[in-house]
Specification:
The complex is a heterodimer of chains A (544) and B (373). Chain A is mainly alpha-helical and 544 residues long. Chain A has three domains: 62 residues; 313 residues, no CATH class; 146 residues. Chain A is 64% helix and 6% strand. In chain A, strands 1-2-4-3 form a four-stranded mixed sheet. A two-stranded parallel sheet of chain A has the order 5-6. In chain A, a hairpin with a 7-residue loop joins strand 7 and strand 8. Chain A starts with a helix and ends in a 7-residue tail after the last helix. The N and C termini of chain B lie far apart (60 Å). In chain B, helix 6 packs parallel to helix 8, helix 7 runs antiparallel to helix 8 and helix 14 runs antiparallel to helix 15. The chains are: A mainly alpha (544), B mainly alpha (373).
């Protein structure tokens, strides 16, 4: 198909998307008209009632088709040219080189992403204000030339790809995708509102002493979801039909980036972004939010900014990841070609003489990166999260893991408390073991089916690992409280339990003895006592 | 006059009744002689619900009494039996296994034994065997894919412990092959390489070259379901049977190797062997001769009779089958029934009844009279 024809087809499909509601309404009206003309009064009254009922969601859908305008709330701070002159200068230069209009706004956001959006008017027919989003976490992982490649790629999407209509198709597609997202959001909101309403009602019923009804939101938001389904179905058709165009655009944007930022920098940026995504997920899960259950967050500026520490400590590991790209199979609705294919195409370009340029970190484009990382927390964190206690990293890791271990040992402490009363400490468990209650405690712990079915010594073998690890946890918690054990933060690997050197080697054998068939709690008691003496005497010089 | 009339009437009536009675009696006798032929053949045999599923044959009285004492927590009779058994390695391995099974469930008595007689090699070998049995109890008897990670972890942990117990038992009684037999099961469970199996096997055969349980255990290692293949298992069994003196009962192993791989796809170009093939006939013949030559007190004799009862029946040799069924009836804790799970006794009884009825039919047709039970 010729480029122009392709573009015309895309335009017709795009128009169809907006005409869909009108067509549906027209069809209903035609049925009504036919009913009024050819049938008796009571029949056409019914037909009209039904068609009105059907028209309601169609009209709502058409209303929803208007993409929401910004209500002034952005996911991060808008930065002006006065705030960040170097960043703005870079973006303007790139826009000029790409051959498109520079964005009107730059918004800094959290996370590994970069995007340029345009609030196109008339359903994608006319250009509108452009806004560039730049993720601070992305900037943390890229050097300046790589960031230039990413920005050039994003701006490249606005270049007239192969015909004048190409840009229009691109805008239209973005609009369709945003609309679908908006539909889904509305449907979810309606369901959420309904849920909240039902929960309030259930709470009232409970308050009045009645049994609460189960909350059921399957019916709510149904008109939105019906409309969303109709439009999503159409959008899928649209995306399928224009998929080759969007793939071509993606490659064209990559070419633009390679031309401007250099072949090697562009390929490196794509590779780095994949690795960075994984690193960022890991960082958020295992570092930034590790203390949330314990009510703790890292110091201001560190919630997102701490990623830089992880990247610095794991530079080698990450550059190893650059070599491997996800090679997921392409789905029919993917608008992006697989990353591996994009990188391969870029790397197949001829050498452009810009290989070994070393560039500073892209965060250097910001006047005050630390300040931006602190500022972004106000946008990205919920009010509850902002209310959490802020502590230094070493304390955060230690306290979080301590709290997590304490919670995990709940069932064992309850079982020990059932034997000896009190809070169920390691010492209490040792007393219980000496009193012959080891296997009775084991019976209280969660068991698998095979473990429950086992009898005699086999039952003990099923219980032993749980008792062993549980007692270890209680002992370590007790040592931690006495200052003889501490969980150590490491940016390059998982947090590690740091025991006083005198204790570390003795702990395993002492635990084995305590949960043996003929238990001997002596070694563990000695170890706990030594931990105390250790902590009292010279403090903990060897850790932290 | 009246009496005469009465007599005249009564005589034919009585005559009729007598004739009728005669017919009944004749009919009754004929039915019972013919129809009960099979019932007579199986009369006096043990019904499925009264079969002992744990043992292959009754134990010697002293051993039975010692096991009963152990169940009550007294270890001394068991220790006395082991002293009496002495260097009869066949009996020693068989009896220590039974003790090990009991200790795998509750080892209070064994602990008492160990504490009373420090470094007693008999207690040590029972300890080693019990730890291996315990490992298997933790694992369960199901195939790997039905066994949970938790079960495997416990299995491996306890097997590691068993290794230490075995080493201790071997040191305390260097001549005894029993600890090395236990070591085969550790190697099997931990997936030891064949070189390790060869090393253990050298230890075993140096002490007891034709030991039944040792061969049974090693054959398991070489079976396809564990660490070997049909071909390796068959080769091992044939070689053992060929090298063994008459009465050692090692001729059972080609039959067991066949049984372990029966119904599986043949490997490579080997066609699955037929149970009535010439080779199988020869194997059964050899085992029949071996059983005849064996000492009546051999602790494994009954196990081989169970196998023979089964394979003779499958080969249509009903008399030999029936004879072996009669000799082992009452105990079904042996191959091939043991793999049948809950209906092992029913399986045995079904096959036994077929054999005995078949033998009765054959005898009836030959002699025209039921055989003497």
């Amino acid at each position: 198909m010729a480029p122009t024809l392709r573009a015309v087809r895309a335009l017709v499909l795009l128009a169809g998307f907006h005409l869909l509601g009108l067509l549906l309404l027209g069809a209903l009206a035609a049925i009504d008209w036919a009913a009024v003309t050819w049938t008796a009064g009571f029949v056409y009254t019914k037909v009209i009632i039904v068609s009105v009922l059907l028209a309601v969601p169609v009209v709502r859908g058409m209303v929803m088709l208007r993409t929401p305008r910004d209500d002034g709330e952005t996911p991060g701070p808008r930065v002006t040219e006065a705030d960040e002159p170097r960043l703005w200068q870079t973006v303007r230069e790139l826009a000029e080189q790409v051959g498109t209009r520079a964005p009107d706004e730059i918004v800094l956001v959290a996370g590994v992403n970069a995007a340029v959006t345009e609030d196109a008017r008339l359903g994608g027919l006319l250009p509108g204000p452009r806004r560039m989003y730049l993720g601070l976490s992305l900037m943390a992982g890229l050097d300046e030339t790589q960031l230039r490649a990413v920005v050039a790629h994003e701006l490249g999407h606005f270049v007239h790809a192969d015909t004048r209509l190409g840009a229009l198709v691109g805008r239209g597609q973005a609009q369709v995708l945003r609309t679908i997202g908006h539909f889904e959001e509305r449907a979810e909101n309606t369901a959420a509102k309904e849920r909240a309403r039902q929960e309030r009602r259930a709470a009232k019923r409970v308050a009045r002493g009645k049994e609460a009804k189960a909350v059921d939101t399957s019916g709510s938001g149904i008109t939105y979801r019906t409309m969303a389904r109709i439009y999503t179905g159409y959008a899928k058709l649209y995306v399928r039909a224009t998929r080759s165009d969007s793939r071509r655009q993606e490659f064209a944007a990559d070419l633009a980036a390679a031309r401007i930022a250099g072949r090697d920098a562009t390929a490196a940026a794509l590779r780095a972004t994949c690795a960075l995504d994984a690193a960022h997920d890991h960082y958020m899960r295992c570092y930034a939010t590790i203390g949330v259950d314990a009510g703790l967050l890292p110091r201001p500026g560190e919630v997102f900014g701490g990623l830089r520490r992880l990247l610095a400590a794991r530079a080698d590991e990450l550059s190893g990841l650059h070599g491997r790209l996800p090679d997921a199979a392409e789905g029919p609705y993917d608008t992006h070609p697989p990353m591996a294919e994009r990188v391969a195409r870029i790397e197949a370009l001829p050498y452009d003489g810009r290989g070994g340029e070393s560039a500073g970190p892209s965060l250097g484009l910001l006047a005050d990166a630390d300040g931006r990382f602190a500022e972004i927390e106000k946008y990205a964190l919920t009010p509850q999260a902002l209310g959490l206690r802020r502590v230094d990293w070493p304390e955060l890791v230690h306290e979080s893991i301590r709290a997590e271990r304490e919670a995990a040992s709940g069932p064992l402490r309850a079982a020990v408390a059932a034997e000896r009363g009190g809070p169920g400490t390691a010492s209490a468990m040792l007393d219980a073991i000496d009193a012959g209650a080891l296997w009775r405690i084991g019976d209280q712990l969660p068991q698998s089916g095979a473990a429950r079915a086992a009898t005699g010594r086999a039952a003990r073998e099923f219980a032993r690992p749980g008792l062993h690890s549980g007692l270890r946890q209680l002992v370590v918690l007790e040592l931690a409280d006495r200052g003889a054990a501490r969980w150590e933060l490491s940016w390059s690997e998982a947090a590690r339990l740091d025991l006083s050197p005198g204790l570390a080697g003795r702990l395993g054998p002492a635990l084995d003895a305590a949960v043996a068939d003929r238990p001997d709690t002596g070694p563990l008691r000695a170890l706990l006592a030594a931990g105390e003496a250790d902590a009292d005497g010279k403090g903990r010089s060897e850790a932290v | 006059m009246f009496m005469i009339v009465l007599i005249v009437l009564a005589v034919p009536t009585v005559g009729f009744l007598v004739w009728l009675g005669g017919v009944f009696v004749r009919e009754y006798v004929r039915v019972s002689r013919g129809g009960d032929r099979h019932d007579a053949a199986v009369a006096g045999l043990v019904p499925a619900e009264r079969q002992d599923t744990a043992l292959a044959a009754p134990l010697p009285a002293a051993e039975r009494a010692a096991l009963d004492a152990v169940r009550e927590g007294r270890w001394e009779p068991a220790a006395a039996v082991l002293t009496e058994i002495g260097r009869d390695w066949e009996r020693r391995s068989a009896f220590t296994y039974l003790l090990g099974e009991l200790a795998a469930d509750d080892d209070t008595w064994l602990t008492a034994w160990e504490q009373t007689r420090r470094d007693c090699p008999d207690a040590a070998v029972v300890r080693a065997r019990s730890t291996v049995v315990l490992a298997w109890n933790v694992r369960g008897a199901k195939r790997a894919r039905y066994t949970s990670r938790e079960q495997f972890e416990g299995f491996h942990r306890v097997l590691e412990q068993a290794g230490a117990d075995i080493e201790r038992a071997a040191q305390l009684n260097p001549d005894d092959p029993t600890p090395h037999i236990a070591a085969i099961w550790v190697a099997l469970g931990l997936g030891a390489p064949r070189a390790e199996m060869d090393r253990i096997w050298a230890e075993v055969t140096a002490r007891a070259p034709h030991h039944y349980e040792a061969h049974f255990s090693a054959l398991q290692y070489w079976c396809k379901k564990w660490r070997g293949s049909r071909r390796l298992a068959m080769a091992f069994a044939e070689q053992a049977a060929a090298a063994a003196p008459a009465g050692s009962l090692l001729t059972a192993f080609p039959l067991i190797a066949f049984f372990e791989h029966d119904g599986e796809d043949a490997e490579g170009t080997d066609e699955p062997e037929d149970v009535e093939s010439e080779a199988m006939q020869r194997r059964v013949d050899a085992a029949l001769r071996d059983v005849a030559a064996a000492d009546a007190s051999h602790p494994r004799l009954a196990e081989v009779r169970h196998l023979l009862a089964y394979y003779c029946l499958l080969q249509g040799r009903v008399d030999e089958s029936a004879e072996n069924f009669r000799l082992v009836d009452g105990y079904v804790g042996a191959l091939p029934w043991r793999y049948r799970g809950d209906d092992q006794a029913e399986h045995f009884c079904d096959m036994r009844d077929i054999a005995l009825k078949g033998a009765a039919d054959v005898a009836f047709h030959l002699d025209g009279a039921p055989p003497q039970a």
